[in-house]
Amino acid sequence: MGFLKVIRTWALRDKMPIREIARRTGISRNTIKKYLREGIVEPAFQTPDRASKLDPYASQLTGWLVSDQRKSRKERRTAKLMHADLVKLGYEGSYERVAAFIREWKGERQRAHHTTDRGTFVPLVFAPGEAFQFDWSEDWAYVGGERIKLQVAHIKLSHSRAFLVRAYLLQTHEMLFDAHWHGFRFFEGIPRRGIYDNMKTAVDKVGIGKKRDVNARFTAMTSHYVFDPEFCNPAAGWEKGQVEKNVRDARHRMWQLMPAFLDLDALNIWLEDRCKLLWTETAHGRLPGSIADVWGAEKPELMPLPTMFDGFVEERKRVSPTCLINFDRTRYSVPASFANRPVSLRIYPERLMVVAEGHVVCTHERIIDRSHRQPGRVIYDWRHYLAVVQRKPGALRNGAPFVEMPEPFRVLQAKMLRQPGGDREMVDILSLVLHHDEQAVLCAVEMALEAGVPTKTHVLNLLHRLLDGKLTDQPDVNPPAALSLSKEPEANVARYDGLRTQKGTRHAS
Q1: Which of 6, 257, 419, 448 is most buried, judged by most C-beta within 10 A?
Q2: 8 A C-beta contact, residue 287 and residue 294
Q3: If DSSP codes are grouped into helix, strand and coil, which group holds residue 41?
């Protein structure tokens, strides 16, 4: 381009003859006249078509590339594998020529994609308090000394672009409900609409157009929080592009900078603090100020928070003869009075609640173990089996639930089972927790062990003293000298024989 500028300057501005320009540049006069006549500022050279060793195999290679586009990324062949396959078919050219052909083919497809309607979008604008967007992603973190895969909920206000990231172990209904509550709590209000993709925890069936069969529990949640759900078209992630971008941005703004945590609660606390910090550091972009500033202005337009939605998922279970129910590869104990009977299991993100006859029977901390390399766990509550051992005291000796009793109970059991009838007396002591405070019973057992009298009667005596408020460790009383006896009594049984020998005295003998 600089060379042509010199020619045009000499000819048009300095009025230099064509012959002189040709002499100085070494270019023919006809070529200089052509450049000046066409007014070009950069020469264009035609590259002649040359035969390539890849030409006979171009259609085969194109077919491979088209078929690979229908496969997942993990199943697609690399350029090196395709070159090796072409060599087997007789190709004698270089790998670089094959790689250049593949780059050119992919570039043409990308350019064609961006010139169609699918590559054209309309910018969206949302009013304050109008909508929020929700999505899931998968990320990794070190929790409890182990690197685990997490299901991450992203919820973002469409106007202020305030966002919350919260981690879970599963993408189930109860996790979805919990993520909404924490999102609304974090935003201090609820928008009028929620924008989702067609996730299975919300949509049972995708119909034609915008028709959806929405899950009943999801509908109950939206009714409780009073917002309208709106679902995107299938495979149209750009309809909720804000939260899609948040998923991508969170990876280098949060997950790559994340330390290790003891448990999931500590991780979620860190995520909330990190989101708040990013609000203040990130400019809104469309409106003046940071995300935190725009969120402060949007907050009055949000609906105030109601009470938390009771976001459980209920399943029908039947209690086994061993007083256990099975859920998610883990078995949990139920009071023995409900053995062989149907119960309802209410599933929460962190706990399980067993309900029968309209009352809560028991509650367990939920165990989520996605490893299938080890057998499932059994979670016992030894109190649930007291009704059984009252009828079968011999089961106490090797009963699996009673391995998890508090240490004082197990020490007392080891001492009492050495005595005849000790198993039944031990059952009676354990059954005291059904009628009295367990800590009081434990205290009585510890005092009996310290006194060296591990018996049922002594434990009952100590327990009653504790419950009545009487002191059991009273100090020894030393009476004053005025109350001392002048003559101590003697234990002499011979005095009785003297009474028998007195005259006039009648005795039964």
Answers
A1: 448
A2: yes
A3: coil
